[in-house]
Amino acid sequence: KQLNIEEISMIKTILITVLLFVFSSIVHAQNHAFDDTFISENFKLLNSVDTELAICMSPIIESRLVLDLKDSTSFYSPMKKLSKYVTIKTSEDSIVKTYSWDRINGGSWHDMASYVQFKTNSGLIKYQRLDSGNEYMTGEPTSVIIYDVFQIKTKNESFYLLLGWGTYGGGKQHALARVYKIKDDRIELCDSIFQGEKSIGVYANRVD
Length: 208
Description:
The chain is of the alpha+beta class. The protein has four helices and nine strands, in the order αααββββαβββββ. Helices cover 29% and strands 32% of the residues.
């Protein structure tokens, strides 16, 4: 039986998925010192394939990056290779480090992933996901590329202002400002900074 185009495409997707998973597991097991070569090559591949294949690969590559964020040595890496494909920003005091990128879900709706690594008061390196994942249903503008991180110092503690940009369907774009603080082993969104609001959003038409 001769395979049709859809069947060939499906087989290619399955093969790439299996190879990414197996090879990433081997590399992670063998390399103790963090090296961003492999994850950057994953993102390079993600940005070079067609949309259909990218949609299949994107969750796997995101899971691989999350695995790297669990590795505390990645927090201290400059991520020079990965930064070609993922927007990485670090606070002035080197306590907060963000990672954000377009998941490439196809169409005009851009689904932006965002994660944060941070150092707790006890010196542990933790990570959290920042985008809610519910933007399609709630319309919350948390799907953004974080393009700047500012440390806000007070007498007793530090806060972190995260500025982001995103775009949904219908030719719309938005900017988002949020403030976080580190408490125990978590980084928490401050809900009283902007007159009781969790964030400040600015919306406008997109000019392509």
